[in-house]
Amino acid sequence: MRVQIFIPCFIDQLYPTVAFNMVKVLEKAGCEVDYNPNQTCCGQPAFNAGFWGEAKDVCNKFIQDFSGSDYVVAPSASCVGFVKNYYSKLYEHSSQQQAAKKISERIFELSDFLVNIAKVENLGASFKGKATYHDSCAALRECGLKQEPRKLLQQVKGLELVEMADNETCCGFGGSFAVKFEPISIAMADQKITHADATGAEYIISTDMSCLMHIDGCIKHKGSGLKVLHLADVLASF
């Protein structure tokens, strides 16, 4: 199965290892991976800030860069959720409406693709440790993903997966929300960390590095010993 990969801005710039690990995971699942080096952003930051015209310029490029019939896989439920749920609104009653609809049907977050499209749950991964899983708002509410990442993690040899309290509660990041409402954002992350610490877990795992980046910053400020890991990092381990 041939797939195109989309690497979000912050992963490209801040967490490139996650992208490389996603490629390893997809190849372990038997996929032929294609990367278009011309790709840029999905357009979400500008759209969320209210700059729909500027966002559309970026989205036009995204549709062009990922033209074709291959599946598009990304290590970010946030970006995938934006393309799936908001491209149709942005391109409503326009000549690009069908192209936007097609790309929204072809793009998948990594765990969704592995479990529901590739039909692979056991990737032969091995990772020793105790971890808890954070449901990002984008994965849970925009992509409808709950069991998919857990099914994959339950197959990882040596990993003990435990559930924290209120695991469906937002971590407080929310993009610009963390900037505009910093005290609330920090308090929400602090609550998330408290619940994770209560499980005795060593790691917090999620599908979204945006959430994990925010949580990790608060972990360091709080002095907790927790570490954060993207799902791809765990699945790529041997």
Detailed description of the structure:
With 238 residues, this protein is of the alpha/beta class. It folds into two domains: 2-116, no CATH class; 121-235, Rossmann fold. The protein has 13 helices and eight strands. The protein has a four-stranded parallel sheet, sandwiched between helices. The protein has a four-stranded parallel sheet with strand order 6-5-7-8, with helices on both faces. Helix 5 runs antiparallel to helix 6.
The ordered H/E elements are: EHHEHHEHHEHEHHEHHEHEH
Q: Biggest sheet, strands in spatial order? A: 2-1-3-4
Number of strands: 8
Number of helices: 13
- Alpha-carbon distance between the two ends: 23 Å
Radius of gyration: 17 Å
Q: Helical content, roughly?
A: 40-55%
The amount of beta strand, in percent, is 15-25%
